[in-house]
Amino acid sequence: MTYLPAVILALIGLGIIIKNRQAVLMFMGVEILLAAGNWTALLAADQHLISQHVAVFVLFSIVVAAAEATIGLSIVLRLAQRHQTIDVTRFSTLRDGRE
To answer: Membrane-crossing residues (predicted)?
Structure first.
């Protein structure tokens, strides 16, 4: 029962990824999935009374996810600027078209 909020959060993230084709929303869905995973790891560490090392690892994982979000969002915004859209079906290639 304690894992229910994390499962709901994971399902919301998965639904966002499956339903939308906009790069920013898909990226948000991935970040929500990562947050649900971190939440689950913290709940498991708390329930099973695992050492504090797990909590430090999860905290480090949250910091890495924040850095990944910054870099990923800058890549998405650069692609949107280059292709004039955020629809991922329009991104046929990642190169700029110069040969």
So the answer is: 23-42, 54-77
Query: Using CA atoms, how far apart are residues 12 and 9, in angstroms rounded to an integer?
Result: 5
What is the b/e burial string over 5-26, where b = at least 16 CB atoms within 10 angstroms of the residue's CB?
ebeebbeebeebbeebebbeeb
Answer whether 0.90 is exceeded by the pTM: no
Q: How far apart are CA 19 and CA 31, in angstroms?
A: 15
Angstrom distance (rounded) from CA 88 to CA 23:
6
98 domain residue, yes or no: no
pLDDT band at residue 16, thresholds of 50, 70 and 90?
A: very high
CATH number of the CATH domain containing 59: 1.10.287.3510
Q: What is the pLDDT of residue 99?
A: 44
